[in-house]
Amino acid sequence: MAFFAVRYTYTDDTAGLDRVRPSHRSFLASLTDGPLVASGPLAGADQPSALLLLRAESAAEVTGALDPDPFWEAGLIAERAVEEWNPIIGIFAEN
Question: Domain of life of the organism in this record (predicted)?
Answer without folding.
Answer: Bacteria
